[in-house]
């Protein structure tokens, strides 16, 4: 059985968001073998990474020799192994620069773009139908407001319904966005609203 002196506790960090992991490694493994183990931890291809040692005293050292062992490095427990990403492919470029799907805010950005597309052909004053309720059904009205609001993030469409199926008179939390009769106003997501041109075959407004 191997003694505890044949192992070392290392902290692994990377450029990918805020990755942090504390792991025990054999002192006899090489830098090349360490990269393959780190690939499993971080998801970064070992061929697209460089390793940097950050010693407890703050000293930094890049690891270039793939055949060098951890024992050769003369490091102690608590030493940090930081994974730097080198650009190999378009994917690696996106990953390193946190672009596209590797951007932590990717889903929010996509959702915002989709909402912006949904309102491109909509204008205040247009007749529309809106899908509301549970079970959902279409209700008639007109678009009274398009834009952002103070009560929730994102783009919203303010609708003035033809009947009392709304929630207010165009004012929310003391701020007026449009004017209509009480219980005929509501804010809905753009994808739930269809204009007359979009839905002329389904409903004659």
From TrEMBL:
Residues 8-86 form the Ubiquitin-like domain. SUPFAM superfamilies: Cap-Gly domain (SSF74924), Ubiquitin-like (SSF54236). One of its GO terms (cellular component) is nucleus. Keywords: Chaperone, Cytoplasm. One of its GO terms (biological process) is cytoplasmic microtubule organization. GO terms for molecular function: microtubule plus-end binding. InterPro entries: CAP-Gly_dom_sf (IPR036859), CAP-Gly_domain (IPR000938), Ubiquitin-like_dom (IPR000626), Ubiquitin-like_domsf (IPR029071). Residues 147-189 form the CAP-Gly domain. It comes from the Eukaryota. Belongs to the TBCB family. This is Tubulin-folding cofactor B. It comes from Trichinella pseudospiralis.
């Amino acid at each position: 059985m191997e003694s505890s002196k044949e192992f070392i506790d290392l902290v692994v960090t990377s450029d990918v968001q805020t990755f942090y992991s504390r792991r025990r490694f054999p002192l006899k493994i090489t830098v090349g073998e360490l990269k393959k183990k780190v690939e499993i931890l971080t998801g970064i291809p070992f061929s697209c990474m460089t390793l940097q040692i950050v010693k407890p005293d703050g000293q930094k050292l890049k690891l270039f020799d793939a055949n060098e062992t951890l024992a050769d490095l003369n490091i102690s427990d608590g030493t940090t192994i930081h994974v730097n990403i080198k650009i190999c492919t378009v994917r690696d470029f996106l990953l390193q620069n946190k672009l596209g799907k590797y951007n932590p805010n990717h889903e929010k950005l996509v959702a915002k773009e989709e909402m912006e597309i949904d309102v491109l052909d909509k204008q205040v004053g247009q007749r529309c139908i809106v899908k509301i309720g549970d079970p959902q059904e279409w209700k008639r009205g007109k678009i009274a407001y398009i834009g952002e609001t103070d009560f929730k993030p994102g783009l919203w469409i303010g609708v003035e319904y033809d009947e009392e199926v709304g929630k207010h008179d165009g004012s929310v939390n003391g701020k007026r966005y449009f004017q209509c009769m009480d219980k005929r106003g509501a804010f809905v997501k753009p994808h739930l609203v269809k204009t007359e041109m979009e839905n002329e075959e389904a409903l004659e407004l």
